[in-house]
Amino acid sequence: MACGCGGTNGGSGGCGGGDKSPAAPVVEATLAKELAQELAHELPVTAAASGVVEFTPPALVTIGEPEPLLIASSEQDWPRIRVNGVAITPDAMAQELQYHPADEQSEAMFLAVQALVIRELLEQRCQALGLQVEAGAGESQEEAAIRSLIELEVPVAEADEAACEHFYASNLQRFVSAPLLAARHILLACTPEDAEARSVAREQGQALLLELQQNPARFAELALAHSACPSKEQGGALGQLSKGQTVPEFERQLFRQPQGLVSQPLESRYGFHLVYVDQRLDGVQLPYTAVASSIRSELYQRVWQKAVAQYLQTLVEAADIEGIHLAGAALMPEQ
Known about the structure:
Helices cover 39% and strands 13% of the residues. The protein has 335 residues and is α+β, with helices and mostly antiparallel strands. The strands form 2 sheets. Strands 3, 4, 5, 6 and 7 form a 5-stranded antiparallel β-sheet that branches. Helix 1 packs across helix 3 and helix 3 crosses helix 4. The longest helix is centred in the C-terminal third of the chain and has 31 residues, at 288-318.
């Protein structure tokens, strides 16, 4: 069984026995999709008038009897959406749905349609301005056009030095180097679902802990005899650990421990760990000069997102959007 300690074999950052769940597939999305997903919460949505497909954003659903997020008749399986007279086709909606996983199909449909409406508004604005751009490396013509449009119509100034210094002084706890630990462990493995095995492992852990408290020098001997982790061949050594190398529930407990033998077995999804912290280096405050660039980038990103959200709102307010009601849009019921 894997222990989830992170790192590599040989006592240099863990045993390498952690289960690694396969990463979820990453689907490349266009800049328009990204803008829609990041900034959707900035565009409040209200219920549509009678006869129009009705979308209600999840954040506005009240607790109680659930209300449908999507209303469609048997003759209308797909909502009928138009943006300044341009129809959003069912094929486009079907393709967009894959980028918006949600618990309910109606919620996914709302998010997909919202993204398509925003993309259509941006494309129409590009056409109105007659933007002619060349796509850069790794971007489509559509992405290049939208990028150029945002750069042209949403100027954003970088934060000045005073703003960056103020942000640093107000958030000192964020700018601390990661703590480091050198530790050994003995894994008494059991699955999360097996309550009986967990009880047995806990009792075994307490018994072994008593032996270690009487004679800590036996740690390597007991690790070789009892640990289910490959690190037992190196006396249980995990090497140097930083945050993010172990499973979260083990990490939260481990990084609170002082140097020496931990007084209780630490529980994780993999079982119970008897741990000896050999060395502990706490994080230190990073100087402003070391983080100024990242602060400037973060502040710029915040301002940029707000500015783009406001820009999208102006496009929505000026548009004739049918079938979905975004705040400020001229809602025209379907006949």
